[in-house]
Design a protein that fits this description.
InterPro entries: TMC, TMC_dom. With 573 residues, the protein is mainly α. It contains 18 helices and two strands. It folds into two domains: 482 residues, no CATH class; 39 residues, no CATH class.
Amino acid sequence: MILFACLFLICNPFQKWMKFQRDFENFKTACIPWEMKIKEIESHFGSSVASYFIFLRWMYGINMILFGLTFGLVMVPEALMGKPYGSLPRKTVPRAEEASAMNFATLWDFSGFAQYSVLFYGYYNNQRTIGWLKFRMPLSYFLVGVGTIGYSFMIVIRTMARNANEDGGGDDTSFNFSWKMFTSWDYLIGNPETADNKFASITTSFKEAIVEEQESRKEENIHLTRFLRVLANFLALCTLAGSGYLIFFVVRRSQKFALEGLENYGWWERNEVNMVMSLLGMFCPTLFDVISSLENYHPRIALRWQLGRIFALFLGNLYTFIIALMDEINLKLEEEKIVKYNMTIWEASLYNGTIPENSTAPPIQVDPADVPRGPCWETMVGQEFVRLTVSDTMTTYITILIGDFLRAVFVRFFNYCWCWDLEYGFPSYSEFDISGNVLGLIFNQGMIWMGSFYAPCLPAINVFRLHTSMYLQCWAVMCCNVPQERVFKASRSNNFYMAMLLFILFLSTLPAVYTIVSIPPSFDCGPFSGKTRMFEVISETLEHDFPSWFGKVFGYASNPGLILPFILLMVYV
């Protein structure tokens, strides 16, 4: 009896410690954002659908960091320590636009008061220091823009390396069904809802394993399969060519509208490029999905082909959009020369007191709203990317509400009084489009990386988009979608998604770097006005705030003759 009592006293603290560790692990799991929602989706729809939501959550974390950098080091300092609204022309709505500056249509188009605010590049002043803290706004703006790209490269490459290490390369297919049969159940489950989810998860994992086994043993007519795959690729190329031609046609129309004055046209003409790109991104993935049914690939391989085709579609659309923006920037630069000449005449007239009588400006002190100003191409670029992001978000939400929710409501309530079975025939419940949603996330993030230098509000908009998308899409998946007929297991490594994200990150930085290095900034707006190139803020800081020897060392270190061999060495290593 004494021996049992001693054993109880010894084992009881150990059991309590084990229980505490298990409860603490459960607490940490509960603290992971949306973890329980994703587990529930995985139990009903499989690991492939759950991998999308895991990827979305990871993207949300990245954008929270980007939002913290731009909000804390750019937007807040300018709002608190910079000159207030109305103190400078760049911070004031022009007199001709004041009447409509607060209209909903104007604000929805991100013009009016939205254009002349901390949301866009043109609002920021070019003073070296602002406020009593002597905060270096131009330097901070430039370093935050470069730092967001550098941080994004670092985190994507680091995640890819971690995924590669976790892959392990071991064989997990031996006695697969026996392991699932005898070791899948968790006997510590005490919640009925958790038990139901676990049962659904085990059932789905068996379906995934059966599909893998069937694909490994499948025999096929190789000649017919090759013909169908060639035909599918031909149809996909025709779709891509048609999409590219449509974008080219719309861009040419938009340039014509810009030359004639957008104020003479309606809402559709002003937003035609954005809307056409959003509609192509909505309908073309569905067409590619129909084409892929001809190829008879393994579902995982079919998903990668689908992702590659949508990737080519979005990439062509995005770079066509960038080329259109470059043409518009060139038009703004030509217009800037004319404005500079007119401003010289206006300043001379103001100095001589010969301002025309019908002018609203007094002879000496001029209201900032009446001062003529040049075209701010940086704000124009930021506005275009913000409009494209918002229109893409609205298109995604409308697609979910109409394509998933209303379709599910129609099938559910009209199935009893229809001529055929709507659930198993046309239109049936929709399946979750993994490829379209993944590529939508990746290209939306590419637009954020590309446009956030000219619109600091873009990371905040993307955080809001991802936050609402998580709840809306989780609800749509569980309420409106059905599991795929061929449920397949996701790849053990998510590096395929990461590789596409890294490629888009590289392609997104090229236009931004080109504009920073090659195009002169606008002369009367933004933190770099008055400089011939934006990167001159670095040399200016080295000249005024560091010893002369440090500037020489930095100049030698930044020599291309040293940088290129270093980059090549890093590539080989």
